[in-house]
Amino acid sequence: MNLLKRLNPFQGKAINENNIESLILRTLMFTDLDFLSNSLYSQLDSLLPHKSKDLNRKRANEGKVFAQYELCIQQANTLQNLNEKQNNLRIAANNGHPIAQCLFGNTLDDENYPRYLKMAMNHGSTYAAALLLKFYGKDFDEFDQAIYRIKCAAENGEYKSLLFYGEILILSNWVPRNLEEGVKYLKKAMEIDSNSLDYLKLLISTLKTLKSDEVEFYQTLYDKKKKLLNENMLKTQKELADRGNIESQFQYAKLMLKKALKENLSQQNYNSKNMSIKNEKEGLKYLKLAADNGHAKAAEDFAMSQTNIDVKKKYLSIASKAKNPRANFKLSQILDADPDPLNQRQSRYFLENAVNLNDPEAMYHLGLAHLTGNGIEKDVKEGIHLIKRAARLKFPPAMKEVLNWTKKGKKTEIKKKVEAYLTAELTKIEAGKHENVFPDLYLPGIDIQKFIQ
């Protein structure tokens, strides 16, 4: 959903110095906070940072509570350090800001994550209600209340709730499925804003199932929206990147590299091939720019695009210092290939860093090393523990390993449930299916970490 377009009171005119303040003031006056998003604030902040921040600082100094929370969120968006982000979001979350509660909750572990979502739901956030339903399923102690909140908001025409409730009726097994009713809610949402392409795809696929004559209309709409969205996104990210916005440098690089790959795969003619090479160079240029400016993911991606091992190590080191889990793991792999004892010790150091940063592949590799005693002290219990952690994070090799364990020994009820769950999840992963907000199969209470044998 394009929030800037949706909230823009100037009917599609470009956002500039003359109308930015009115736009920000309008967003601050919204009563339904679910309309607001941290991405909106980061976009506003990137466009005219002195305007948006100065306005909220002024309002915060005047004691306007809402602006105080927005300032915390804006500042959190500009920070690279996770602890600093958390501290800013915590202030806003603990003072009752639903968006901050959702964002802060996402940085926490499974035990504390739902606590902040419940706070957000109690402050009227239907988005938090939807996330809680996904997290708990029918085991949620406020299940009926969450469904009721989403349904009521949908019936009152609230955009996100129309999408959520339509999806619940079409995809989930929490309420009796009703494709016709689900389509009705999704169509109402599309009348408000048809920029949510994932939900537009869901509407199209459901209409196909119902053999509706409206499929062609919505498919044409989808194709137009996707093309327009891509063009607008590319233009906007380029403008922001050239103004020095590091995140936009990274996003623009990704878009250009994706475009180059698509053109390269088509290989329709000589011009197409030349365009692919040109776009790839442009993408790598901005990827390096973002990496040199300290963007952890850009540094990781740029490193992996290089063949020179020293350049690889340089940029992976930048990313690893910013606590990028994949960079730590990849740096560990590069160093592990060198038999030098110093590099072997460094390899182990970066591998353990990656595990501490919750990289599932690193957990799996360290787990295997503990199980076999390969280059490390053998510790079967720790090996099993690490592989189960990786399985919980849906790393396929680890999931297959745990699946093999379920087939050994006596078949218990928990083993059967774990086996069914892992088999279904692996099937989805290997089929490359998109995981919906409300997946068909969600088995709460199955803790693979506690699974024995």
From TrEMBL:
One family name in Pfam for this protein: Sel1
InterPro entries, A to Z: Mitotic_Regulator (IPR052945), Sel1-like (IPR006597), TPR-like_helical_dom_sf (IPR011990)
Superkingdom classification of source: Eukaryota
Protein name as catalogued: Sel1 repeat family protein
Source organism per UniProt: Tritrichomonas foetus
